[in-house]
Specification:
By secondary structure, the protein is of the alpha+beta class. Helices cover 44% and strands 8% of the residues.
Length: 225
């Protein structure tokens, strides 16, 4: 993937005017701090589509009324404006970008890897929900099984450090959440997700050096609000 240094536009709040709709520009409505939106942001960057897909970041605490009324009625991010329509849902959009735009593929050709990718993508909601719910309960008991599942999944293909061996849409689906959970669980709840999980530790290490998966200069807030 080619790396493009990008001047990130400011987030739009309720006072901001709506960008033109369906004027031929492809727009990714996003929020810098949202891990679901970051999945699509990473895909865009990894495929080198910074010039083809314009970022329209929103302030989720003070989002513009026009976004729900005229752009995307579910009022969530991410959403993509492309070819006269608006498409939502982060995993659907990751697949859509891979199928409809140029750049390196993030979908495996191998049938066994494709099947495992589907299983891991289906599991992602369970993973995210289990970790979020653990914040109010017995952390170790609730998150040990899901992080052990990830560690075991990383052992399925040994031709690289990623879930499917090579970097793929599965890594993109998980890494925004893994990175958040690692920091929050370590700093707030003193739980190290990499302890006894060398493959997960290796995945995090290698993803931290892929330019397209870093979110600087965005600062992620871990407040409980």
């Amino acid at each position: 993937a080619r790396t493009v240094l990008e001047n990130l536009p400011p987030s739009l709040d309720s006072t901001a005017e709506q960008p033109p709709l369906f004027d031929g520009t492809t727009r990714l409505y996003t929020a810098y701090i949202c891990p679901y939106a970051q999945r699509v942001w990473i895909t865009r960057n990894f495929k080198g589509l910074q010039n083809e897909i314009k970022l329209v970041p929103l302030n989720l605490q003070d989002r513009p009324a026009w976004y729900k009324e005229k752009v995307y009625p579910p009022n969530k991010v991410p959403a993509l404006e492309h070819n006269g329509k608006i498409i939502g849902e982060s995993l659907d959009l990751v697949k859509y970008l891979d199928a409809n735009f140029e750049g390196p593929s993030i979908t495996p050709d191998d049938p066994a890897k494709k099947q495992f990718a589907d299983e891991l993508l289906s599991y992602s909601d369970t993973f995210v929900g289990s970790v979020f719910s653990s914040f109010k309960g017995d952390v170790a008991n609730e998150v040990d099984p899901v992080f052990d599942f990830l560690e075991n999944s990383l052992s399925r293909f040994n031709d690289g450090p990623f879930f499917l061996g090579q970097f793929s849409l599965v890594d993109i689906a998980y890494i925004p959440f893994i990175e958040r959970f690692q920091v929050f669980l370590s700093e707030v709840l003193k739980y190290d997700i990499t302890e006894g999980r060398p493959k997960l530790a290796a995945l995090i290490e290698v993803l931290n050096i892929i330019p397209s998966t870093t979110y600087e200069p965005i600062t992620i807030s871990y407040s409980s609000s």
